[in-house]
Amino acid sequence: MRVLGVDPGLTRCGVGVVEGVAGRPLTMIGVGVVRTPTDAELGDRLVAIERGMEQWLDEHSPDHVAVERVFAQHNVRTVMGTAQASAVAMLCAARRGIPVALHTPSEVKAAVTGSGRAEKAQVGAMVTRLLRLDAPPKPADAADALALAICHIWRAPAQNRLQQAVAAHRTPGASRTQPAPGISRTPGASRTPAASRTSRTLKGPTA
Hints:
Elements: E1 2-7, E2 12-19, E3 27-35, H1 42-60, E4 64-68, H2 76-95, E5 100-103, H3 105-113, H4 120-130, H5 140-169, H6 194-202
Parallel strand pairs: 1-4, 4-5
Antiparallel strand pairs: 1-2, 2-3
Helix pairs in contact: 1-2, 3-5, 4-5
GO molecular function: crossover junction DNA endonuclease activity; DNA binding; magnesium ion binding
Keywords: Cytoplasm, DNA damage, DNA recombination, DNA repair, DNA-binding, Endonuclease, Hydrolase, Magnesium, Metal-binding, Nuclease
Cofactor: Mg(2+)
């Protein structure tokens, strides 16, 4: 599985590509940051992010895209920019038919470090260790993007099993109680145990 992790941001949008499967060593394919000038118009900045995302998608052809889920913060302006960059990343992936997953910061931290309250330095250190890098990726946005990709690779199998279970449960007409293998039920058949029915059938008239 090849995953493109995206740490959305209007000024710096971290991107990182990781390849591998859960339970085995992972490999970093690429890491970087898509930047936009702070003095540019909002529309132009979003176009720049779109072009940067398209380049990464063209170059690395990921199977999945993992984006950090945006949460409300005290700085509404920062949150708006992050949400707009996130939407652009999701749009680029959806346009190509690439599945998109959203992971919260605490989910990513817990997956990579074991603690949902880990500091950025801890996340960077663990990313460096897990991907066998010489040094933590800079800036922190790049390391966070790799952490998102790692998180998705490790969580995807469990999420897929959960989705399949939910889909099976919601299947229209599915019976909650399935008969034993090899036994079929005839509509309207008596619920009297088979042994009792047989004994009555074999019992002949009294002489």
